[in-house]
Amino acid sequence: MPELPEVESLAAFLRERAVGHAVARVDVLAISALKTYDPPITSLGGLTVTGVARHGKFLDIDVDGLHLVVHLARAGWLRWRDEMPVKPVRPGGRNPLAVRVHLDDGSGFDLTEAGTKKGLAVYVVRDPSDVEGVASLGPDPLDPSFTVGTLAGIVGGKRTQIKGLLRDQRIVAGIGNAYSDEVLHVARMSPFKIAGSLTEEEVQTLYDAIVDTLRDAVARSGGLAAQDLKAEKRTGLRVHGRTGEKCPVCGDTIREVSFADSSLQYCPTCQTGGKPLADRRLSRLLK
After folding, report:
1. Per its UniProt entry, which superkingdom is the organism in (predicted)?
2. Per-residue pLDDT averaged across 26-32, rounded?
């Protein structure tokens, strides 16, 4: 799933390529991806892209005051094309193409989604906050206003496991399954640690891990083309998606805990005092 660093990089990429160009037309191939109807997506035609922003994991393309807001969900992506195909694409079948945006110079981008479980969401709104998911976002960890005091207020008294808290977009915006694993590995913290139990020192350590991990990921992907961002993310991950490999810090074997629709990865030596975590489907954390 694209998270804060990838969406931030996509926004930067589109600022360079799309801003200043008019939208020639928009083709909607997957009606299920379109979540709004007023204003209609066709109203973007003839308007000019004036800016691109990010809100958590949401991409916000400003088109003369109307906003094309995109949430890429688990398997969505944005694919840039310097030259758009002339031949129209027919909807249906296994085509992953959901929305195609043509710009006035012949370039443009596709919004695609792989797999059968569809979650890609596309909105056309007058204000980004008209999208419920945007309006309910917690503080952005890369915003200067996000301080260690902000994080202390977030975790204080919470009986939530820290992994789940970091993934909750209403609490902290932009961090998903992958980067929560990475942050907790850098912080040398168990994903099942209770948020409210963090000491002042641990809050500072977690804060530094959040900010440094996300900033490093954004920096690594700076200047990359949209099609290269996924590969860069995979290359840069230390523990997420690396079950069975050696921890780059201590050499221990990276382990996994599976859930119904996701999994987490961690290093026992770095994060849990050498003890493996129990599968949450079967039992509680081994202490």
Report:
1. Bacteria
2. 92
Q: Give the largest CA-CA distance in the chain.
A: 61
CATH of domain 148-271: 1.10.8.50
SS (H, E, C) 166-181: HHCCCCCCCCCHHHHH
pLDDT at res. 244:
95
Strands (E), the chain: 23-28, 49-55, 58-63, 66-71, 76-81, 97-103, 108-113, 121-125, 255-258, 263-266
Say which DSSP state 107 is in: -
Per the prediction, the chain carries an average pLDDT of: 92
Where along the chain do its domains lie?
Answer: 4-135, 148-271
According to the 3-state scheme, what is the secondary structure of 144-208? Answer: CCCCHHHHHHHHCCCCCEHHHHHHCCCCCCCCCHHHHHHHHHHCCCCCCCEHHHCCHHHHHHHHH
Write down the CATH number for the domain with range 4-135: 3.20.190.10
Could you read off the pLDDT of 188-226 as tens digits, one per residue? 999 999 999 999 999 999 999 999 999 999 998 877 777
Q: What is the pLDDT of residue 94?
A: 66
